[in-house]
Amino acid sequence: MENNGNPAPQGSPLFSSLEKNAGDIDINPIQQRIIEVAARLMERHYLLDLDQLYQECTRFIKEAPKQQIQSALNDLVHRKILIHGKALNRQQLLENPNRSKILEIIRREPGIHFSRIKAWIGKESRTVQWHLKMLEKFDFIREVRFGNNIVYFDFLQDKNHDKLHYYLHKDGAPAILGTILNRPGGITLSDLIDIVQMPRSTVARKVNVLISEGFVRARYLTNQAMMLSVVEDLVPVLRDIFAGWDKS
Prior knowledge:
mainly alpha, Arc Repressor Mutant, subunit A, 3 domains, 3-stranded antiparallel sheet, 13 helices, elongated
């Protein structure tokens, strides 16, 4: 039986979903009422029509003038809490356990590659790609390309260190950077090779990349030995990253 104008009944799955997550975002009472009306519309029509939503809101939200309703609705749309033509809203999106897990992984490992996400989730590529696109569409994550590689970050992650996070996912990079970081006075290339237990050519190649990307500084001693240290501005950043890894 069709609901003739009242907000979605509190027993309906959609209303329960919206109500349960209302405390997770900053919304005012008028916006809460708009979300309730949107829930009723999506119960009836599945897809959300914003023009129809505005008309419904002006009919049933009598405690606010039309201008205030329009302003509140515009804010919900701007923040992608409600999206025209979408069956889902931002609050509902993470009820899917796969999407929730993907977001958790990306937040825990910023700069993570698709293949690693796929391995964690254990789903086929098409399914993982769909969930990533949904998370990106609703501004939970952002996609960044480095050369031929596409990696993922939390939407609010500081962009200034995207490349550093990306390189920390490369084989050997965490061990090399971590070892250099733990020697504030610097470490010679020879000592670094002894500690990380990798072939000399591999370490030299990776160190050259880290130097060229501006993560590591090299200076030469009087005996021509190369002394390596982490670029000063990145020391606290790397310490925070490694500390976060230790906690996870």
